[in-house]
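Feature request, filed as a ticket because there's no other form

It would be nice if the structure record came with a short human-readable summary line next to the tokens. Right now we just get the raw output. Example of a typical job, pasted below so the devs can see what we mean:
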Amino acid sequence: MRWLTSENPKRSARSSRDSRSICINHRSRRDHSCWKLRRAHLSLTVYPLNLRGQVYGSPMPFGLYDPGGTLLHELKAADISAIVLLAEIEECKEKTGRDLLALYREEGLTVFSLPTPNYGIPSNGQLADVLKQAKEHASDGHNVLIHCSAGLGRTALFAALLAKDVLGLSGREAIDWLGLHKPDALLTPSQIAMILG
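Raw output as currently delivered:
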């Protein structure tokens, strides 16, 4: 899969990191037209998994893509009772100016925390547990939200891994499923490799 490995080593550290994100539908970098859609992205994405409860994805409430905090109202309207929090706690504080973990708990939400570095993959050994918790919660009829910062990389990764588990998909099928339900997802090569693995 040649499109996964084309990187320009002359780029700065920041632009090199950003260029690793690949539009999964178009196999292209961030300059593709799908990237322009992200600015307007403020709603919940539905990830259909055929469970009694619904699984959603979104950007971080009160973060860069939701500075007014409108997503919190959408969470309540969607009757979400649990959050899979993929952003690291310090990242949440830096990007929102709030303690999101405490805010979620004050709102009565269950939080399944899986701190994952931006553009990275989970590495703390909790992935299987959090996948199981999210699946059980949705299987019991409760709605679950997955979020990182933009809701495009780590969130899409977790949704694809959950789809592999719940729907019995292969890695390739999970990427195709993700492209169907989150066409503007941006995954890094390591995230794609994790789904394919």
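Something like this underneath would help us a lot:
Residues 154-167 form the longest helix (14 residues).
The first strand starts at residue 22 and ends at 23.
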